[in-house]
Amino acid sequence: MSNSSSMPQFLLLAFADRRELQLLHFWLFLGISLAALLANGLILSVVACDHHLHTPMGFFLLNLSLTDLGCICTTVPKAMHNSLWDTTTISYTACVAQLFFFFFFISAELCLLTIMCYDRYVAICKPLHYRTLLGSRACAHMAAAAWATGFLTALLHTANTFSLPLCQGNALGQFFCEIPHILKLSCSHSGYLREIGLIVVNACLALVFFIFIVFSYVQIFRAVLRIPSQQGRHKAFSTCLPHLVVVSLFISTSFFAYLKPPSISSPSLDLIVSVLYSVVSPTLNPLIYGLRNQELKDALRKLITGCFSETINSLSSACYVPH
Hints:
mainly alpha; two-stranded antiparallel sheet; about 80% helix; about 0% strand; globular
């Protein structure tokens, strides 16, 4: 990464030129960040505290919340800082770190979404084999594989991208450090093709994951249709359909961001697509996967009620004056 001496910083894309719109963007992203932090924080707290949620789905949901928090905290704070202080700069080192951690979290998230789909498939289609196929050791191995895959993928892409000589300026047409926009600054044709090849390989793997997810949900829907209870079918569909929608949004926008032809690229289009897969999807995940789960909602209600009761008792004890 010898570019760091000749390229001390990059220029990120501003969301707007007018100061009022920049501040509006700051407050909008602040609201999204707080909502994501609150939702994921509640999921982490409830799953960790309630032993009834120490299940495979609860374990994977906890890991998914960590990746969602990572995605939000990697890109959004810097964009908020730039909008608030009317600047667009990011240092070379910060850009390297941002790209690495973002790719790390989204790669791990895709693996976890696939694993969670497999969990639902086994729970609905093969319930008698659930304990066997998704024991504690198997769950730990799958989660470790997801995180390791994210780390190795991020390391490979980051090292390869920032080893390229950059001679096309330092302006990135994106609000965070994203590989396609860094590649536009490269003047090494062979290095550019090598990184594109890595992206295509990753895209093929992601496509395999997506096909597996779609196939699993088809099997789930077929099993759900055989449920005699109308209420049971409605519950299963209301749970699985939002999962499929969010996964499709995440994968389709990611594919478009990394594989779209340069001829249809524009700053506004790139900005919208990147916000969808880097900000909107991680924010929706805790709402779709977690807070729609009845067991988790019951545990959350119990936790809040318990905390409220303890607070009331503490206040009552503090205010009590013995005679």
